[in-house]
Amino acid sequence: MTRFEATESAERVALAVDAIAAHRDRESAFCTLEADDDPSDDPDFLPPWVQYADGTLNLDCTDEELDALDGVLADFGAFTVESQDSHEDAPGTNVRIEAQTDDERVGQFVERVFRDVYELDEEFRLWAVEV
Known about the structure:
131 residues; Alpha-Beta Plaits; single chain; alpha+beta; seven-stranded antiparallel beta sheet; 35% helix
């Protein structure tokens, strides 16, 4: 893999596809895609992320983000929620989503999660932080 960030929609989808392929080739535990977008410059800001491993996506969502995630899932029939875990001391819910589809469709789903669920601007920077 030669590039690790992208700022345009088609490039971000391609980056996700490439990161998944690199993860598979390297037989790593998972790959992580992370947004670089903090509009408030808050020092405690934790960037949104999505992990992928063995056909499963893993992400954290607030209650509002869970509602938006339901809308994205409605558009992607090959994606189903495998589990949702909430802990009393955690600010949100961890969601595991099974993806029974090709890497390109996973990349499109990841793009929609960052744009629609995490409500990031069109120009946000996506990083492949772990492959």
